[in-house]
Design goal:
Length: about 120
Amino acid sequence: MESITALKQGVPLPPQKLIDLRSKGMHTVRFEFIVRLLRLNTQIITLSIYWEDGREFLQIPSVQNAQRKLVYASQPRVHGLFDDMALLCYPYDSDAKGKVDTELDRMVEAIGEYGRNTFRS
């Protein structure tokens, strides 16, 4: 994607384009997390997943040198940290995809481990 290449090269993008890319990235990461949770062979009683302060940073019209927190607010409470640039570039850039996938794997593994230990018969 042309915008991702420009972004990685430090070329400024229009504010609305950044907002659109961030929104798509955040929604895609959250959806991917849910899909991975559904693949777990464990009992999930409630499903509460949100981006901490998501509404505020979703609308930021510039690239931030910050990490965003995706929270799984069920048992066990787990969160993942994602660089703003990774969210802007996910899933189109292989580096961003690798970083995000690694963090999602870590989160899912923590939830799966809790489920295996809690629901053993």
